[in-house]
């Protein structure tokens, strides 16, 4: 489509889009708005679908930003990386606000269409799993729900073959404090990151001399900020589920609230949290 040399500064509001790209054309709105297909006549099923569609769109942006942030970290482009990490924190703040809308759905509302979901469940979201893998929480058991989709499994297994963004942060930490990476613990590629005293000892050096190690200090705080918002998102998820279904099993067969509460204990960057008690 052509813009026909349209200049909004001089030509005013355009109203003829027969030969030009419109708002709907650019965003493919016909396709996007045709993806909500309730399986019941329940009024609130549309809310449930749109809630999850928008969440998946935000997760897509998280993956886009986190992947670019990791590449920037590897390339030494810390200024650009900090902006991306800050944006991811704001995205999780936005995702947190979405729970407020879903909470307007009562248990009675949800019960009118819950059976329509079959065994589908949010824990099967491969984008959510990819976000956790990018951050370093790498539970390979969670590949199983995607065995039926080889293209999805490849996306996840390809990520497991790469160091997480926290692994790359630790690499920079050792390179800066020790002058090389020889004493750096091996990246935990296919297991959730576990706290390591050697890593924590180096973060302690950073936090006790922030003027000398300002870049690492700022990076550490950006990661803590991100995990802070991520934890709030998880907590609000638990609260919303308990409010809507109580302690019933989830549609996907998990223990529901019990499963989600266990996720609250997961620490993505444990050394950055534990070091605070040593300062």
Q: Which structural class is indicated by helix and strand composition?
A: mainly alpha
The biggest sheet, with number of strands, parallel, antiparallel or mixed sense and barrel status, is: none
Helical content class: 55-70%
CATH topology of the largest domain: Methane Monooxygenase Hydroxylase, Chain G, domain 1
State the separation between the terminal residues, measured CA to CA: 60 Å
Query: What is the oligomer described by this structure?
Result: single chain
Number of domains: 2
Please state the CA-atom Rg, rounded to the nearest Å: 22 Å
SS strand fraction: under 5%
**CATH class type of the largest domain:** Mainly Alpha
Helix count, per DSSP? 13
The total count of strands amounts to: 0
Shape: globular
On the 0 to 100 scale, the average pLDDT is: 91
Runs with pLDDT <50, length 5+?
A: none
Order of helices and strands: HHHHHHHHHHHHH
Per CATH, the architecture of the largest domain is Up-down Bundle
Topology:
Blueprint: H1 8-11, H2 23-27, H3 29-32, H4 45-75, H5 78-102, H6 107-111, H7 126-135, H8 150-160, H9 165-177, H10 197-208, H11 214-245, H12 257-263, H13 270-274
Helix pairs in contact: 4-5, 4-7, 4-9, 5-11, 7-8, 9-10, 11-12
Can you offer a commentary on this structure?
- This protein folds into two domains: 1-33, no CATH class; 47-278, Methane Monooxygenase Hydroxylase, Chain G, domain 1, CATH 1.20.58.
- The model has no long low-confidence stretch (mean pLDDT 91).
- The protein has helices at residues 8-11, 23-27, 29-32, 45-75, 78-102, 107-111, 126-135, 150-160, 165-177, 197-208, 214-245, 257-263, 270-274.
- The protein contains 13 helices and no strands.
- α4 packs parallel to α9 (165-177) and α5 (78-102) packs parallel to α11.
- With 279 residues, it is mostly helical.
């Amino acid at each position: 489509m052509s813009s026909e040399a349209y200049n909004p500064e001089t030509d005013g509001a355009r109203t003829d889009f027969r030969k030009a790209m419109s708002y709907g054309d650019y965003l493919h709105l016909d396709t996007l708005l045709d993806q909500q297909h309730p399986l019941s006549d329940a009024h609130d099923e549309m809310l449930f679908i749109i809630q999850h569609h928008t969440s998946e769109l935000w997760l897509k942006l998280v993956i886009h930003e986190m992947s670019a942030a990791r590449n920037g970290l590897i390339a030494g482009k810390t200024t650009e990386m900090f902006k991306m990490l800050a944006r991811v924190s704001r995205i999780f703040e936005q995702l947190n606000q979405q729970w407020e809308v879903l909470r307007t759905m009562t248990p009675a509302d949800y019960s009118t269409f819950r059976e329509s979901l079959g065994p589908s469940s949010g824990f099967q979201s491969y984008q959510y799993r990819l976000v956790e893998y990018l951050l370093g929480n790498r539970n390979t058991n969670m590949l199983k729900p995607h065995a039926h989709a080889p293209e999805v499994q490849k996306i996840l297994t390809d990520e497991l073959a790469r160091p997480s963004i926290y692994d790359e942060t630790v690499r920079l930490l050792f390179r800066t404090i020790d002058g090389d990476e020889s004493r750096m613990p091996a990246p935990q590629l296919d297991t959730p990151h576990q706290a390591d005293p050697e890593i924590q000892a180096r973060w302690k050096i950073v936090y006790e001399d922030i003027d000398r190690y300002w870049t690492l200090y700022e990076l550490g705080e950006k990661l803590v900020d991100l995990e802070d918002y991520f934890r709030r998102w998880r907590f609000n998820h638990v609260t919303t589920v308990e409010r809507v279904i109580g302690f019933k099993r989830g549609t996907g067969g998990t223990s529901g609230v019990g499963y989600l509460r266990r996720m609250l204990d997961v620490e993505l960057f444990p050394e950055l949290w534990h070091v605070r008690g040593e300062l």
